[in-house]
């Protein structure tokens, strides 16, 4: 998430145009959205540009919003002259910090702009040297292609590693209006709640994405203040080629949000999740994005991938696993033939809530040496203390084995789902690391900096 605007109003002259880039973690999306009654996904870091003469004031504001400033970097604002604010922001994020931060999109459109959206928006132009594997060749000549080292890595700074990943092709003030192709239930009989697998038609769009990214959905109608509804982000549950492996669709895994109002005890349903869960084939849906660089898979086909998910946090994991093990995907990705090891630890309340159960079991049976599935079914299984078996209990059960894998340089760990599971996972790995005299919190910072620890919780 990136904020820009009023803060820089006092620093737009060359004399005194010292701008600093704050990296903030734990920040709520905004003071306004902090009052909403639905969870807002937070992952990676938030980046805010702050003029020198507003630094102390901004620090106090961020503290009030629960943020923790983890780094401050100077930006030469004069060098950014001649570019629009949005261009400057995108360049700063992509070239300075894109390896370690996920770009979470903010709706900067005014209420009038959003309300007046009609039909499809124009796709944001893609730079000529933008290329993503599986989407075609770059427009650069062979002589102009970036030089690569012996391992095939582009020889630029590591922080520009994901500069070619598509981001914000469609923005909130000009979304793509796609259509629902299918909407299938994922929870079996006697399961808890409503979870749907939705597939949207992208054939008339320029939207391309890769595994681990998210798209925004703008629900119809207005909010409690009479303003157009803001977008909500959802992790993509399909590979870059889509469920039909034809590059024309994108899929989501969506649970209808339902909870009791704390004061009235009235049952409240999430606005956007309810809209999505009851879409019919042919219905229109406003799509923005894609966004996100925090949850991307490594290119290394020999990598070891640990996945920990709860509920609909399975969405990006499904995309990874399809890319690794589905026959049609393997045929479509001649340059990516996975030979590594993938381990999914999946937490759900009941067996009927094991989303994509048949798919997962089929992969495990077909590739027993490459894929391992471990489930934590809280309302049916017991932990060693006799309580419910949650995902953190499974992690504790296999902590030594997981710690051994995590120490390997080829291992990447992905966590997606409810934020509550993180504390238990950290506790289990803290105990395992301590056996070797290692402080887990310090080690975790190291692998996160190395781009091997990926978290998207909400």
From TrEMBL:
<dbReference type="InterPro" id="IPR017938">
    <property type="entry name" value="Riboflavin_synthase-like_b-brl"/>
</dbReference>
<dbReference type="InterPro" id="IPR008213">
    <property type="entry name" value="CpcD-like_dom"/>
</dbReference>
<keyword id="KW-0472">Membrane</keyword>
<dbReference type="Pfam" id="PF00175">
    <property type="entry name" value="NAD_binding_1"/>
</dbReference>
<keyword id="KW-0521">NADP</keyword>
<dbReference type="InterPro" id="IPR035442">
    <property type="entry name" value="FNR_plant_Cyanobacteria"/>
</dbReference>
<dbReference type="InterPro" id="IPR039261">
    <property type="entry name" value="FNR_nucleotide-bd"/>
</dbReference>
<dbReference type="InterPro" id="IPR001709">
    <property type="entry name" value="Flavoprot_Pyr_Nucl_cyt_Rdtase"/>
</dbReference>
<dbReference type="Pfam" id="PF01383">
    <property type="entry name" value="CpcD"/>
</dbReference>
<protein>
    <recommendedName>
        <fullName>Ferredoxin--NADP reductase</fullName>
        <ecNumber>1.18.1.2</ecNumber>
    </recommendedName>
</protein>
<feature type="domain" description="FAD-binding FR-type">
    <location>
        <begin position="173"/>
        <end position="297"/>
    </location>
</feature>
<feature type="region of interest" description="Disordered">
    <location>
        <begin position="137"/>
        <end position="161"/>
    </location>
</feature>
<comment type="similarity">
    <text>Belongs to the ferredoxin--NADP reductase type 1 family.</text>
</comment>
<dbReference type="InterPro" id="IPR015701">
    <property type="entry name" value="FNR"/>
</dbReference>
<dbReference type="InterPro" id="IPR001433">
    <property type="entry name" value="OxRdtase_FAD/NAD-bd"/>
</dbReference>
<keyword id="KW-0793">Thylakoid</keyword>
<keyword id="KW-0560">Oxidoreductase</keyword>
<keyword id="KW-0274">FAD</keyword>
<dbReference type="InterPro" id="IPR017927">
    <property type="entry name" value="FAD-bd_FR_type"/>
</dbReference>
<keyword id="KW-0042">Antenna complex</keyword>
<feature type="domain" description="CpcD-like">
    <location>
        <begin position="17"/>
        <end position="75"/>
    </location>
</feature>
<keyword id="KW-0605">Phycobilisome</keyword>
<keyword id="KW-0285">Flavoprotein</keyword>
